[in-house]
Amino acid sequence: DVQQRVQLEWNHMGTGLESQLRAGFSSWAIDFDDQESIAQTWQGQWKTLFSFDSLTRVETLLQFMQETGKAEAYPTNGRSGRSRGAAVVSVVRRWDALIGEFQAKQEWVQDNWAPFQYQLGLRMNYGNRDQWSTRIRTAAQVRYPTLNDLFWGVEDQLALNPERSCQNEISQEYRFQILGTPFESRLTGYTNHIENYILWLPQSDLSWRATNIDLVRILGAELELSGSKNWGPGVLEFGRSYSYTQSEDQNQYQLIFI
What we know:
With 258 residues, this protein is mostly beta strands. Helix content is 2%, strand content 75%. It has one helix at residues 147-151, and strands at residues 2-14, 17-32, 35-51, 56-71, 79-95, 98-109, 112-113, 117-126, 132-143, 163-178, 181-202, 208-231, 234-249. Strands 1, 2, 3, 4, 5, 6, 7, 8, 9, 10, 11, 12 and 13 form a 13-stranded antiparallel beta sheet that branches. A hairpin with a 5-residue loop joins β8 (117-126) and β9. The longest helix is centred in the middle third of the chain and has 5 residues, at 147-151. It is globular and about 65 Å long. The two termini are 27 Å apart.
C-alpha cells in the first residue's frame, strides 16, 4: 500500500482569541491480488477559540470534506464519492469546583441535513486536594455510513441508513499515592441505544456485508488503574484495565461482532 498526506496550517493567537485554518489532502492506495483500490480525501476546516474570561471558553469549528473512492469491487462503475460539511459550537464554563461542557453539531452530507446532535457534560472535583472527581455525560449522535459501508460489495448496501444513538455515561475517579507514587483509578458505567446500527456480518460465500440493525442496546462498565514513577532520567508508567460490554438487538439476541 502507498499512503500520502499533505497539510497546510495557519495559526493566529491574540488576546482572548485563537484561530486555526487548515487545508489538507490524503490518499491511500492498496494493491491486493492484482486489484487496486484508492481512497482520497480533500479537507478544509476553520477553528476558533474565544476566551471571554478565565471561566468561560467557546470554540467553533467549520469543516468541509470531499471523499472519493475507486475500487473494482464497487458496484457503481468502480467509483464512489460524496461531500460533507459540519458546524460545531462548544462551550466550557467553570463554577468553582464544577465544570460544565456543552456541544452542538449540525452536519450536511451529500445534499442532506443530518439530525441535530448535542453533548452535555458536568464534572465536579471535591475532597482533599480534589482527590475525587465525578462526571456525567449525555449525548445524541449521528454516524453516517463510510464509503466502504455504502459501496463495497452489493447494490443493496446503498440503502444503508445512518446510525442515531443516545448515550449516557457516569464515571468516578479517585487519585491517591502509595509510597510517594501517584495513582489514578476510574470506574465508568455507560448505556448506548442505537437505531439503525451498521454491522458487518459474514455471508455463506465467505464474503462480508454491511447491514442495518433496527435497534441495539449496549450496557457496559470499565475499571481502570494507572500510575507513574520517576525512574532515573525517565518515567515508568503502568496500568491495568477491565471492561464489560453487553449488546443486544431488538429481539434480545447478543451481538458478538460489536
